[in-house]
Amino acid sequence: QVQLAESGGGSVQDGGSLRLSCAASGDIFEIRGMGWYRQAPGKVREFVASIVFGGRTSLVDSVKGRFTISGVNAKKLAFLQMNTLKPEDTAVYYCYAYKLTNTFWGQGTQVTVSS
């Protein structure tokens, strides 16, 4: 069992910044990477960012140049720095962590960007 604690969501105006944090606890051995999906009301949940510990990072095209994902492997922490936020970034952001055959999800944190 892995538990994920998310924080950092909130409300900002267009162009503002937020930093999301996600911390894994419990059986954190062999967590290979972490990341975020997001879901706006009435829309499909979409991939946002991921980090493979000791490896590559990935971002959805719509946030490239604005978001940065980073992590601390030894602590199974991940951070999503979100700059130049846009109203279309408004969503519930769900942190995840994965092992080879298991994926674990956080409770979600609301990000609201006002125009």
What's the structural blueprint in terms of helices and strands?
Layout: E1 2-7, E2 10-13, E3 18-26, E4 33-39, E5 46-52, E6 57-59, E7 67-72, E8 77-82, E9 91-98, E10 103-105, E11 109-114
Parallel strand pairs: 2-11
Antiparallel strand pairs: 1-3, 3-8, 4-5, 4-9, 5-6, 7-8, 9-10, 9-11
Strand element count: 11
Strand content range: over 45%
The largest pleated sheet is described as:
7 strands, mixed
Shape category: globular
Textual characterization of the structure:
The protein is 0% helix and 57% strand. Strands 2, 4, 5, 6, 9, 10 and 11 form a 7-stranded mixed β-sheet that branches. A 4-stranded antiparallel β-sheet has the order 1-3-8-7, with no helix packed on it. The protein is an all-beta fold and 115 residues long.
What keywords describe this structure?
0% helix; 7-stranded mixed beta sheet; 11 strands; mainly beta; 4-stranded antiparallel beta sheet; 115 residues
Q: How is this structure best summarized?
A:
With 115 residues, this protein is an all-beta fold. The chain has strands at 2-7, 10-13, 18-26, 33-39, 46-52, 57-59, 67-72, 77-82, 91-98, 103-105, 109-114. Helices cover 0% and strands 57% of the residues.
